[in-house]
Design goal:
Layout (H helix, E strand, L loop, with lengths): L2 E5 L2 E3 L5 E8 L6 E8 L6 E8 L7 E2 L7 E6 L4 E6 L8 E8 L8 E2 L3 E5 L2
Parallel strand pairs: 2-11
Antiparallel strand pairs: 1-3, 3-8, 4-5, 4-9, 5-6, 7-8, 9-10, 9-11
Length: 121
């Protein structure tokens, strides 16, 4: 059974940066998509970005509102996808979740517990 764990959240000032990590376990070195979602306070959960581990030249997927501020990268050896977030603003305050799926458009079969990102002074 695949499990994912997020890390890297915290408190950051407006304009600052954070890098979140999502590490998957229980994989058999097969390609696997790791997605980032977030849930701002009082709002619905929304998609942020995604890419696949163990898939050469895997595509990167972003929500339209990301507009270059966030970037996904990966380390196949660590079964990890990173979300680099730059120029963070108070509107980016949210719990950020990682979700795993075996193919884009497929069922999300596992979710992490989430990591809190708070942007404020």
């Amino acid at each position: 059974q695949v499990q994912v764990v997020e890390s890297g959240g915290g408190l950051v000032q407006p304009g600052g940066s954070l890098r979140l990590s999502c590490t998957a376990s229980g994989l058999a070195f097969t390609s696997y998509y790791l997605n980032w979602f977030r849930r701002p306070p009082g709002k619905e959960r929304e998609f942020v970005a995604a890419t696949a581990i163990h898939l050469p030249r895997s595509n990167e997927y972003y929500a339209p509102w990301v507009k270059g501020r966030f970037t996904v990268s990966k380390d196949d050896a660590k079964n990890t996808v990173y979300l680099q977030m730059n120029d963070l603003q108070p509107g980016d305050t949210a719990v950020y979740y990682c979700a795993g799926q075996r193919r884009i458009g497929g069922e999300f079969e596992t979710w992490g517990q989430g990591t809190q990102v708070t942007v404020g002074s």
